[in-house]
Amino acid sequence: MFQRLSEKLGGIAERLRGAARVSEADLDATLREMRLALLEADVALPVARHLMAEARQRAMGAEVAKSLNPGQVIVKILHDVLADVLGGQRRDLDISRIPSVILLCGLQGAGKTTTAGKLAKLLAGQGRKVALTSVDATRPAAREQLQVLAGQVDVPYVQGEGTTAAAMALSALNRARSEGHHVLILDTAGRQVVDDGLMAEIREVAEKIQASERLLVLDSMTGQTALTIAEQFHAAVDMSGCILTKTDADVRGGAALSVAHITGVPIRFVGTGEKIDAFETFDPQRFAGRILGQGDVVGLVEKVQAHVDQEQAERLAGKVRKGSFDLMDFADQLGQMQKMGGMGSMLKMLPGVKLPQEALAQMDDKPVKRMQAMVYSMTPRERLYPKLINGSRKKRIAAGSGTSIQELNQMLKQFAQMQKMMKRMKGDKGKRMMAQMAGKFGGFGGMGGMSKM
Q: In whole angstroms, what is the distance from residue 261 CA to residue 265 CA?
C-alpha cells in the first residue's frame, strides 16, 4: 500500500531535506507536485485539497524561511498533516468488557471471514482468550470456512443457535460468556451491493449484542468506491473503525487517506497479504512516515519480536560466540526472515533505503526458499561439515532440491564467507562485522541471478 504515493512523496521529501532555503514559490511548487501525486494515488479531491491547504497554512505560520533547516521543518509539517488525515493517533480496540464482542461487517468479497481469523490470531497472541462465530446464513459454507480458520489459528469456534442472525449472535455470545472467553469475534453476512435488508440485519445484530467494536472490512482495491461503501455503512450503523484488506495489491493507497478523513471512521488494522499472520495494527504516525520514505523502525522491531523465537535466537548467539554456526542455522535464519515478510518487506520499513518501490516490490524471495531447499536436501552430517559435499553429493542435493549444481556452489560459497565472518565476531569486532555482513548479505548479493534460473 502507498507504493506509488510513497515513491513520489518520498522523493519530494528527500529534496526538501537537503534544501538550504525554501521560498514561498518553492513551497507552492512542492504542494502542486504533491497534489498531483495524491490525485494519481486515487485520493478523493476534497481530501487532496484539504491536505494542501492545511500544509500551506502550517508552513506559512511556522516561519519556515527563518528556520536553520527549512526543508526539515516542511517535511515535519507534511508528516503531521498526513498523520492527521489518516486518523491522528493509533486507536486500540475497546475490549475491556468480558466478553467483548467485535462485530465485522462489509460487502461480499471484501475478506471479512479471513480477516476474522487474522484478528483472532493477533488477539490470541496478545494473551487473550478469543472465540469466533458466524451469523452468515446466506453464503454457502461461510460457517465452515470460519471453522477451518479457527482451527488454523487455534481458537474455538462457537456455534450460535436460532433462525435469525440476531438470535444466532445472542446465542453465541451467551456460550462465549459461559465458557469464559474474553473476546468474541462475530462475522456477519455480506451482499454484492449495499441494500436495506443487509443494513437492517447488521443494525439488529449490533443492538442485540451491544458490540464493543463495530468494524467495517473494506477492500482497498476498490479505490474511491470504498469511500462510498464506508459512508453508507457508517450512516446505517455507527462504525467504530474499519479494516483495509488486500493492501499488498493496492499500490495507490488512496482509500486509506480518503476514508478516515471524510467519514471520520478510523482505520484500525490493515491486511498485508494472504497469509494468516499478514495483518497489522494501523498507526497513522508510522504510516505517514512510511509514505514520506522515513521508514518504520518501530514496526520492524514489533515484527521481529512477534516472529523471532527468543530461545532460538539465544541459542544462535551462543553458536556464533563459539564459532559453530552451521548450515542448519543458516537455513533457520532464512526461515525467520521469510516469516517477517521477506527481504523486500523488511527493507521498506528501514529509513534511508533508496531502492525504487518497483525494485522492492519485485524483490523475489524464491532464491531464499531455494537455498533452504538445498540445505534440507543434505544429510545432518553434511550440514555440519560442508567440506564433505563432493561432486556426487552435489548432484544428489541439487536433484533433491530442484536446483542446479551451479546454484548449490554459489550458496555454499556464500555460507563459507558468512561462517568465516561469524567466527571472527568476538568482542568489539562483532559490531563492525555485523555491519559488513548486512552489506554483503542484506540483499543476498550475487543470488539475484538465481531467481532467473
A: 8
Which pLDDT does position 157 carry in this prediction? 92
At 397, the pLDDT band (50, 70, 90 cuts) reads very high
- Laid out side by side, the sheet with 279-281 consists of 130-134, 183-187, 100-105, 213-219, 241-245, 267-271, 279-281
First vs last C-alpha separation in the chain: 29
**pLDDT tens profile 160-202:** 888 888 888 888 999 999 888 999 999 888 777 777 888 888 8
Rounded Cα–Cα distance for residues 368 and 226 (Å) = 36
Q: CATH second-level architecture of 302-452?
A: Orthogonal Bundle (1.10)
pLDDT tens digits, 201-220? 888 888 888 888 899 998 88
Which CATH homologous superfamily contains domain 3-85?
SRP54, nucleotide-binding domain (1.20.120.140)
Residue intervals in the chain for CATH 1.20.120.140: 3-85
Ramachandran angles phi, psi of 423, nearest 5°: -65, -25
Angle at 28 between CA 22 and CA 31, to 5 degrees: 105
Angle at 118 between CA 261 and CA 195, to 5 degrees: 55
In sign, the C-alpha dihedral spanning 360, 361, 365, 366 is negative
CA distance 421 to 427: 13
Task: List every span in the chain annotated with CATH 3.40.50.300.
Answer: 100-292
Phi and psi angles of residue 215, each rounded to the nearest 5 degrees, phi first: -110, 130
> Domain 100-292 falls in which CATH fold?
Rossmann fold (3.40.50)
